[in-house]
Design a protein that fits this description.
- The protein has nine helices and 30 strands.
- It is an alpha+beta fold.
- A seven-stranded mixed beta sheet has the order 19-25-26-24-23-27-20.
Length: 551
């Protein structure tokens, strides 16, 4: 009996050892065959903590405990969204209930629980799925953002026990919530009474309603207006998409005046900084003074003169310009329309990174149709659209930073101050503008390559005041005629003729004439040629050298 137990224990031991060996073999098989095992230092160097989310949502914070994950992100999609259950392969539950609202530029915090992430100090990599949707009137759309994150697992207790999203939406007794498109009407019942609501007016940050025939004041998000029967209407969201086909809607509560709606957010005053750049070396390639320019400048102006790509009268350009400023159409040319056009280009044309000198830009109508283009194409489209609505614009090439972009004329200090305030309001963030100043006034940079708002560029070398800048202004007339110039430097010349005593015939005069011209004192760019005077009355043939000097 004792021997049987011993044999049984031995059998169990063999099974456990086999299991360990199999597990080890699986680990070895999964390891990359073409890489040597990394040291701890190499692993530390290759691992970088990060959190990246696509689809217009920015990741602000990512923390991992052995049993929890915290992710904090900001909605920058341009409209209010409802967030669903955030999922991770390592976690079973999400602390937030599906359907939590997050307004535009508001922050949302979620804690995923019941996780098996590893031990404190381990490196954690995960892909989280963030479903969301939004509804406007009868229209419903959904999407899924993907968060790719790396983090070191931290100690228990680092993540707070509870986190909440920073949405200003609150629920009230005896109230009803609604969302309307511009000029849309609907009827809502509150405490047994019907309220017919019409969204009469909406702009970038305010809305105005008619409720049972009573016109409210224009209200921003968080504002409240009292109706004639004591009921209140509260604005909780404004969605205003600045491009053709964009959604214009407002979300609101109608409630009995038993509670006041106080937004949980504190209105922030955004800051701004303006950098004024006064270029020291610039060339107008539409009207170049060839004789005073260097050969290199002439060659670059021929290469970078895109004046024929600024087609303000093209029907596609004009239609796109009208679509872009549709919300500011019935007004004179304004800074609002400049922002409209920039926003339209960013939303409708995908940026492609193509070397500056590889290809000439397309016609703007072609870029609009293709819906993609490089820096030159972006500059041509934006400048053409600005010109089509009555503005003044140009394309700029800066060889030092190997980049091109559009610049639009703003005016003086008053116009610059107005534009600055409007950009802050429209984009709801701190801004740093880079403006060009010349003898006319201020010009605003409109760059499609990575810039988040008008008035800046991500390529800082382009802002160097000592960098050469090559400007193009439109050379296309209303009837489509192009007056583009190809520059060629003209040289002044002077010619003198000498008799060549050593030349025997025209056949051997060229080398001899060069010697004659050099002896005559000609230096620099020169040419030499010869011609014969035939024999007369027995005289010998004479060869003359013509020396031409180019200044």
């Amino acid at each position: 009996m004792g021997g049987g137990i011993t044999n049984f224990k031995l059998f169990i031991g063999i099974l456990l050892l086999s299991s360990l060996l199999i597990s080890s073999c699986i680990t070895i098989v999964q390891a990359p065959k073409d890489n040597q095992p990394k040291t701890q230092e190499q692993k530390a160097e290759s691992f970088q903590e990060k959190c990246e989310i696509n689809a217009g949502i920015s990741c602000d914070e990512f923390k991992v405990e052995p049993n929890k994950i915290l992710i904090k992100f900001t909605n920058k999609l341009g409209y209010r969204i409802s967030v669903g259950d955030i999922t991770s392969k390592t976690c079973k539950s999400n602390s937030q209930e599906a359907g939590s609202y997050v307004d535009n530029f508001k922050t949302y915090v979620a804690v995923l629980r019941d996780c098996k992430n590893g031990n404190v100090g381990d490196k954690f990599s995960e892909t989280l799925s963030i479903p969301y949707w939004f509804e406007v009137g009868s229209k419903s759309e959904s999407g899924t953002a993907t968060a790719i994150a790396n983090a070191k697992i931290v100690n228990y207790g680092t993540i707070p026990a509870q986190e909440y999203s920073h949405s200003i939406v609150e629920t009230f007794r005896d109230s009803v919530e609604g969302t309307l498109l511009e000029n849309q009407k609907n009827t809502y019942a509150v405490s047994g009474k019907d309220y017919e609501v019409l969204l009469k007016f909406i702009d970038v940050d305010e809305a105005q309603f008619t409720v049972n025939g009573q016109l409210t004041r224009k209200m921003k998000v968080g504002d409240t207006d009292k109706l004639a029967d004591g009921t209140s209407i509260d604005v909780t969201g404004v969605l205003y998409q600045d491009y053709a086909g964009g959604i214009h809607s407002a979300t609101f509560f109608i409630r009995k005046n038993t509670q006041s709606m106080q937004p949980t957010q504190i209105k922030r005053e955004y800051t701004h900084k303006i950098n004024v750049i006064e270029p020291k070396i610039s060339y107008d390639c539409s009207r170049l003074d060839v004789q005073s320019a260097s050969d290199e400048t002439v060659a670059r102006c021929n290469a970078y003169n895109y004046c024929d790509k600024m087609t303000a009268y093209d029907i596609t350009v004009r239609k796109s310009g009208t679509d872009a400023i549709s919300q500011h159409l019935n007004q004179p040319y304004s800074t609002s329309q400049i922002i409209d056009i920039y926003a339209w280009a960013k939303n409708n044309i995908a940026y492609q990174n193509v070397p500056l000198d590889d290809f000439a830009p397309y016609r703007p109508s072609e870029t609009i149709t293709l819906k993609s283009g490089d820096c030159k194409n972006y500059g041509a489209v934006i400048s053409s659209m600005i010109l089509s609505i009555g503005g003044q614009a140009r394309i700029v090439v800066v060889p030092k930073c190997i980049h091109a972009f559009a610049e639009v004329f703003i005016g003086g200090q008053k116009e610059l101050d107005s534009l600055t305030q409007e950009i802050k309001q429209r984009y709801q963030q701190d801004i740093e503008l880079n403006v060009i100043k010349d003898s006319q006034g201020y010009w605003l940079i409109l760059d499609g390559a990575g810039a988040n708002y008008p008035g800046t560029t991500e390529i800082k070398e382009c802002l160097d005041p000592n960098a050469e800048r090559y400007y193009s202004y439109s050379c296309v007339s209303a009837d489509g005629k192009i007056s583009k110039q190809t520059y060629k430097k003209e040289y002044l010349s002077q010619t003198v003729t000498y008799l060549c005593d050593t030349c025997k015939s025209i056949n051997d005069c060229e080398p001899e004439c060069k010697v004659v011209c050099i002896k005559a004192g000609w230096v620099g760019d020169k040419s030499a040629s010869g011609y014969e005077v035939p024999k007369y009355l027995g005289l010998k043939t004479e060869v003359y050298c013509t020396c031409t000097y180019y200044k």
